Amino acid sequence: MTDTARIPDKPALEGLEAKWGGVWETEGTYRFEREGATRDAVYSIDTPPPTASGSLHIGHVFSFTHTDVVARFQRMRGKHVFYPMGWDDNGLPTERRVQNYYGVRCDPSLPYVADFTPPHEGTEGKTIKPADQVPISRRNFIELCERLTAEDEQQFEALFRQLALSVDWTQTYRTIADEALFTSQLAFVKNVERGEAYQALAPTLWDITFRTAVAQAELEDREQPGHYHRVAFAKPDGGHVEIETSRPELIPACVALVAHPDDERYQPLFGTTVTTPVFGVDVPVVAHHLAQKDKGTGIAMICTFGDVTDVVWWRELDLPNRAIIGFDGRIIAEAPEAISTEAGREAYAKLAGKTAFSAKQAVVELLRESGDLLADPKAITHPVKFYEKGDRPLEIVSTRQWYIVNGARDEGLRDRLVQRGREIDWHPDFMRVRYENWVGGLSGDWLISRQRFFGVPIPVWYPIDADGEPMHDQPIVAPREMLPVDPSSTPAPGYDEAQRDQPGGFVGEHDIMDTWATSSLTPQLAAGWERDPELFDLLFPYSLRPQGQDIIRTWLFSTALRAELEHGVAPWSNAAISGFIVDPDRKKMSKSKGNVVTPAGLLDQHGADAVRYWAASSRLGTDAAFDPQNPTQVKIGRRLAIKVLNAAKFILTFEGRADAPVTVPVDRSMLAGLATVVEQATRALESYDHARALEVSETFFWTFCDDYLELVKERAYGEASAEQASAVAALKTALSVLLRLFAPVIPYAAEEAWSWSNEGSVHRAAWPAVDELAARGEAGVELLELASLALTGIRRAKTDAKASQKTPVSSAVIAAPAAATAILASAEGDLRAVGRIADLGFAEAEALEVRDVVLEVPQEEASA
């Protein structure tokens, strides 16, 4: 029964977040109940760990709400929901933020300083130039990284709690914590043991700002201005071959010219040599199918290395390596051996030490002087590869790196990864194609090593020979019992610290793993793989991987890869892919565009229920436009939450029981309609269509409030009778069902209203079932629909007469088809009561209308 003392005089959303957030935490409402759980009874979610660097944006609110609706639905279905929260706190974004926030940079050669105080504490959005950053030791730098990420994570958790994410906060993990280090390093060790991880010296995409290698999945093309330069290469017969290049500074690194094998213009040159301008090196003319006959002059330079196609040509045509760009993006001092003429070496000396940009200008001048620049440079715009978080174009340098196989060179593995993708139910299904296209387009194995500081150390050492040279082909891989381990501070097994960096001793691997090499193991990390086998067997493979569409190629693919290599299964049965948030001009929100909206102010102003409603209104895979100046959907969501509170208060003031017999046809009709809503909403949520579930529930709710509640309130207010009890029972039954339908989307309002008449949390209540309504709602949904139309007609007649809705009516006629009037007759009493109609008649007509309305007061008086 309802305790009216629980119902506030004026229900409001304000204060509910603090009230219920504390209750949920104290009572453990969202805790994963491991004890007694079986595999079939568990619903496990591989939650995206947001990067703990900077601030959350509206996209996090958007996608995490989608996941939370699923978690709440499954919990109400009786599942033991495993819903952890992770923080992705290692990697480049964190380092970059620390550098700018504290005004420091890492120099591993420096000693540790105890009680170090950084020169800055926040820079109020200003960027500190690298030259002004104070160099500190690696250990000091990592301590600052840990300090700042811990502060960011506290702010993120507070915002997610305000948003009412029903995660189990006791299951939180960090990708830099000891458990994560152990899991990442153990998986790597197993990859090495199985031959799936290897080290190689190879051309590597390199970010010269961060001084680190970059993987294929981290690339993005950006349109950049440039110029085509038409340049002459000399033929032995005195003629020349014309090429067009956007990178003339790489002419000293040229190892061949290439044309398509079917290009008749150059077929006579295949197998001959030409001489590079200025630098005087003889290079072969070769054929390859990747050459484009319709690009430029149809013949191109192969340089080591201008772009990824150069790497393919270099590898497949077995060409020499004459790389000239160093890790700092400048031309290295020593000229390639192939440049042997005095003039060529003098020309190269003019480039040494210059940036690629300055070297380009210098080479263009040298070409002009030699007469080998055949035309003025032609302005172009072309795509250039960048690291997704970088500011300068990538270069390609030769480095020794660690790789994990990913199917690029193994057709069997590639086919298995495609098959695993097909074993997953994708929501929406078309997102599967993006995964398959990525797998099919891989051009090289996964480069996982990074030349950075804050991350998971690669657990490897190398012996040093008698001459003091590391023997990279004989790595010493850490045994399991040493994990987690940092080779830069712990000696290799069988050695002591005094032998570090000494002939006959060892050197520790300084590189760390790419952050995706840890994030790709979030299922294993959160479920206690190799740490808690019982829990792991309970959770893995997971039920759901929710994420954004932009990281299918990184997070989703890499997780599927690690699961295949380690377990031979798909890591989840479902993948739910959210769309992007776009601004009012339909442009994707990003920090670089300056159109990102942070959610804190939005939550404070409108409330979490309102913001969640906006997010839940968008289907998976669909981009959602958001205008912070006019957040229409957010305002609609707030209106809905307030209406739920007010409707609940109104209904709960009626005297009567929810379990009383429902006997009046219009009451039974309403419950029949609600049963259909429950069936549709349940089916939608089972299909991960939260937007459809919200749509059908909300549509019914407004009809319920505007029409049914108005239609029966006079009867519900009346003297105790079977008819009065029927109305109250129907109202309270519907309220209970509606609060449960809305609970996943507007959890605060639903919990508050539920608490007025129930014990325990609505979020632990059973999801509504059709069966609980079916036996009480057999009158058919059309009765309520017809009664609603008739009620609308009565209201319109009074409005047209400029009369109050409370004005009594002497007589009125409802005209409708014969079948409709027969149905409506059973609601005559409610229609007369709500319309204050003394004499209500029925007549036949082609369409339903209310006519012959006679008010009990003159129209003039009513108008006054």
From TrEMBL:
Residue positions of motif 'KMSKS' region: 588-592
Family matches, as Pfam families: Anticodon_1 (PF08264), tRNA-synt_1 (PF00133)
Ranges for domain Aminoacyl-tRNA synthetase class Ia: 23-104, 133-626
Motif 'HIGH' region: positions: 50-60
Keyword ATP-binding among record annotations: yes
Enzyme class: ligase
GO annotation terms (biological process): valyl-tRNA aminoacylation
InterPro entries membership: aa-tRNA-synth_I_CS, aa-tRNA-synth_Ia, Anticodon_Ia_Val, M/V/L/I-tRNA-synth_anticd-bd, Rossmann-like_a/b/a_fold, tRNAsynth_Ia_anticodon-bd, Val/Leu/Ile-tRNA-synth_edit, Valine-tRNA_ligase_type_2
Residues that hold ATP according to the record: 591
GO CC terms, sorted: cytosol
GO molecular function: aminoacyl-tRNA deacylase activity; ATP binding; valine-tRNA ligase activity
Positions in coiled-coil regions: none
Reactions catalysed, as given in the entry: tRNA(Val) + L-valine + ATP = L-valyl-tRNA(Val) + AMP + diphosphate
CDD domains: Anticodon_Ia_Val
SUPFAM superfamilies, per database record: Anticodon-binding domain of a subclass of class I aminoacyl-tRNA synthetases, Nucleotidylyl transferase, ValRS/IleRS/LeuRS editing domain
Gene3D superfamilies attached to this UniProt entry: HUPs, Isoleucyl-tRNA Synthetase, Domain 1
EC number: 6.1.1.9
Subunit (UniProt): Monomer.
Record-linked PANTHER family: VALINE--TRNA LIGASE, CHLOROPLASTIC_MITOCHONDRIAL 2, VALYL-TRNA SYNTHETASES
Domain notes: ValRS has two distinct active sites: one for aminoacylation and one for editing. The misactivated threonine is translocated from the active site to the editing site.
Function, as annotated: Catalyzes the attachment of valine to tRNA(Val). As ValRS can inadvertently accommodate and process structurally similar amino acids such as threonine, to avoid such errors, it has a 'posttransfer' editing activity that hydrolyzes mischarged Thr-tRNA(Val) in a tRNA-dependent manner.
Protein name: Valine--tRNA ligase
UniProt source species: Agromyces luteolus
